[in-house]
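Methods — Computational structure assignment.
A single polypeptide chain was analysed. Its primary sequence is given first, followed by the predicted tertiary structure written as structure tokens.
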Amino acid sequence: MSDTPDTAVNAAPSTPRDWRDTVFLPKTDFPMKAGLAAKEPAILDRWARIGVYDRLREQRKGRDLFVLHDGPPYANGDIHMGHAMNKVLKDIIVRSQSLMGKDAPYVPGWDCHGLPIEWKVEEAYRAKKQNKDEVPVAQFRAECRGYADKWVGVQRDQFQRLGVMGDWADPYLTMNYDAEATIVGELLKFAESGQLYRGAKPVMWSPVEKTALAEAEVEYEDIVSTQIDVGFEIDHAPEADILVGVTAVIWTTTPWTIPVNQALAYNPALDYILFGCGGRRFLVEENLMGAFMKRTGLKMEEFIALVKGAVLEGATAKHPMHALGGFFAKPRPFLAGEFVTRDAGTGLVHMAPDHGEDDFLLCKAHGIDPVFAVDGAGMYRPDWAWLGGQGSVINKKFTSAEGPICSDLRAAGALLSASDDFAHSYPHSWRSKAKVIFRATPQWFIPMDRAILNDGEGRASNGATLRETAIDAIEHTRWVPERSRNRIRSMVEGRPDWVISRQRAWGVPIALYVNRATGDYLNDPAVNARIVAAFRDGGADAWFTADHQALLGADYDLADFEPQNDILDVWFDSGSTHVFTVEARYGADVRANLYLEGSDQHRGWFQSSLLESCGTRGRAPYDAVLTHGFALDGQGRKMSKSLGNVVDPLKVIGESGADILRMWVASTDYFDDVRIGKEVLGTASDGYRKLRNTFRYLLGALDGFTEAERVPVEAMPELERYVLTLLGQLDMDLREAAEAYELNRYLRRLTDFANEDLSAFFFDIRKDSLYCDAATDPKRRAYRTVLDVLFHALVRYAAPILCFTAEEVWQARFPSEDGSVHFLEWPELPALPGDEPLGTDWADVRRLRASVTEAIEPLRREKKVKSSLEADVTVPEMPLDASALAETFIVARVGEGEEVTVTRTDYNKCGRCWRHLPEVAVDGDLCARCESVVGHA
């Protein structure tokens, strides 16, 4: 610095000169405080006003198509955290695919039929003490339609508030007329291809809801049931006369099935002990004797014989209530069954073909049919000789050890033990929460193991069964995570025939005509076409008011046919959505790129869609399936109103904003169950705040940047080129994570880059150049050029997750009436010149910098230095020259030594840039650089 006294900048003022007005500090109106809850609704309104979704479709027209087909939630009630997590995941994926240049439409949908809605409407009737069954079907269906329509509107607004972008003006609803026509058309394809039959077999039945249920409509709860041991006196044993008069003992946890017993099952390979006690003889499997004696208190006073189960072939026994005559007086045959094991019980199993899958199949093989003794409400039918008109069979008191069943068995001398203490898992309806039973009723089924000879449209099939076709489709589908493939495969391998009928009112009817004489359904494509046309004109309601003779046409007499009024399983409805959504909108040969739902949908929508498509098209309706876990509270517990631990997404949005919730979703390892609570949301908020501040810094640092300032990459300092190299690596990692649907990896890489590579390293080093170098300085220009590249890249990378904040950031720099960050595509990064590696190993520099920072910290705590700028350091290696290292470490001076050491510098401090430099003669004077900048200002 010159000593000339008349140099204005060097005149010695009476007080130190304040140089802040000469420093180029970042300048932006972008606020540090987000205020998302207030800002986001205005951003939503703007998107709606300028038509972002529709314009994006126009811009992406002709590009590669990416279809994420929305799994339909039920239209009944406000959204919960599971809904929010699911919709946000879908939205982030759709937006990321759009960012990568694809045409990625999103059509939201709703399940509008079935018990969830019907149950709510019935609740209103019950509150008024009205019987739903006394209400005309048309009126009841209209009320269900109105209820569903109301909640579609409510949920639509709530999903949009999450920032979910889609075709909200034209969603798919399973109750729309076209949808109902398509659903019944898909059913009739199964009928025309011979993949439909009516039969009476046990299905899961809800006595409360009075309908059959699918496996996906059932959840298992731990309960305590009554267990009983019951004796059946053998009255005939052609293979072993010694068994006549012996009491064969069965054990069961469903006492209510004893009044419907028709046979006893045994395993020919098991060993059974014949023993005496109290003047009676008993037969029990050898290995189960100990548990049996403990339950009953009986002792083996006399060992008589050890016999193989095979000797029971041809034997019969008396029902304990045989004295009632009629049904109960018939001999109960012993039937060989491999399912009889020594795992529990007595090694003998009582058979009630009305109420068990094994029971039904074994009895059917021997000509024993169900008797339908238990009605839809769980009551024994009035004419039943034992307990007629009584029940319900799911009533705990009715089936208890002191209830009428056990009391009658005890009086008959057949009850050997009864206790209300058997803990086990038992199926319940997930809607009513009531226990379900297995009950044989006439139902419509799609067979899993019948050869498919044509696809329902006249095209020949390869003769594979539906099960075989579905398993093959599973193998040709991408499953994310991969382990979910085994889960759905095992479910399909072991599932029974698909029961598709429900005894309810609100849904798509099984629009078939059954011949009264033969019991066969009418299979006539012309009639089916008229049915579909009627549904398209008037919806499913048309079936209940139809002129059935007109639908049948002149070739058939309505008197010969019975129209069916059962409705379709709602899983068939939702399983058909790919037809009237994906195929109808994008082409008959198009299938969804991705289905994305919770892990419970392996037995629900994933499977019903798979079976529907495989049965009618011979393939899966999707290329890939992504499964996520459930949202639990902060302690890992299932959310429950009774526990008071429900985290309401609408409340979170109202307090913190949707972007915080979206950031939480993206940060989770959502392939497994995830946690959310105040602490978890706090962590998401902290991460958001850091990322927001990165954007705020970029906006401020780029104030006034123009293309004239841009520097070509080859002219940049090595640090800038190193950061561009890091950005290129980030770009590849983010694209890979997006393609893999690993959003947590995507967000973690993005935030780590912003926090560690930028804020804590690049920005920290270059703030001196930004603030204090001349505006035309090549290094400062290069830095701002890279900041511009970073801005364009980072705002795009963040947009799929932080959709509101990215828009706010973009508009802060490029305000417009009708522009949007969501119109942008994946950034094109500047090419680095050639394949030449950087001359410096910047990873080593950063490690050395971390060691220096760590070494300075004790001196800072001891107040020997106020900042790193006051430190002189030595390092064991010099990867850059001393001046560059001093700038990188943000210290006064760097020298080479045996180890990292730190001392206070004796250099004076520049009054403008605050660096301690040798040319500053007196604290507060300017260094050469600052003198030049100020002198030329």
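Note: The longest strand covers residues 218-236.
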